[in-house]
Design a protein that fits this description.
The chain is mostly helical and 184 residues long. The protein has two domains: 73 residues, no CATH class; 84 residues, no CATH class. Helix content is 66%, strand content 0%. Helix 4 packs antiparallel against helix 5. The longest helix is centred in the middle third of the chain and has 18 residues. It is globular.
Length: 184
């Protein structure tokens, strides 16, 4: 192989380009056979994301979840998918300790300190999605209404206007009913 061709291939790979065999392997990690023309032609981004979520739920290690996330990222890049890119930029961290590390804070700090740490991180790198992912991870782990309210008011990409009360309970792993909660 010529040096020019090697440089060209290296450049493509650095830009996220993948060969068919590697792409096939990424889809296979998510349980999808893209060699079947029927599947390949009708597969939607939402189906890919759901498959990813299912495999993450079944994975037993952080390494497996990270590998699945990398596969989804490569597939999203290949498909030039705004839906997959949006999902990945708002998906919570797998491990809350990674979220605390991203914000550079101790898990014992108050919610106000978490918000301040998030804001400082965003000042350093406004285009990064990592601080937001860290914030949503901490908010859901703590089940903190202060953090959730901040996210809803300041980070619309992380809030879902269509969320139902039941979905909110599921997010906080609660089985309360509206009669059990005092509403002011």
């Amino acid at each position: 192989m010529s040096t020019d061709l090697q440089i060209f291939l290296t450049t493509l790979r650095s830009q996220g380009a993948v060969g068919f065999q590697e792409l096939k392997r990424q889809f296979e990690l998510l349980g999808i056979d893209i060699t079947d023309p029927q599947i390949a032609s009708t597969l939607t981004d939402d189906q890919i994301i759901i498959s990813y979520q299912n495999y993450c739920a079944l994975s037993s290690s952080k390494y497996q979840r990270v590998t699945l996330r990398e596969a989804l990222q490569k597939i999203g890049n290949y498909r030039e998918s705004p839906a997959i890119a949006s999902y990945l930029s708002t998906e919570p961290y797998f491990d809350v300790n990674d979220a605390y590390e991203e914000l550079g804070i101790d898990p014992k700090v108050d919610d106000d300190v978490v918000i301040t740490a998030y804001q400082l991180k965003m000042e350093d790198n406004y285009s990064s999605t990592q601080p937001g992912r860290a914030l949503i991870t901490i908010a859901t782990t703590r089940k903190s209404m202060t953090l959730i309210n901040f996210i809803e008011s300041s980070l619309p990409e992380f809030s879902d206007d269509q969320i139902t009360l039941e979905q909110a309970y599921q997010m906080f792993e609660s089985h309360w009913t509206i009669q059990e909660v005092e509403v002011d």
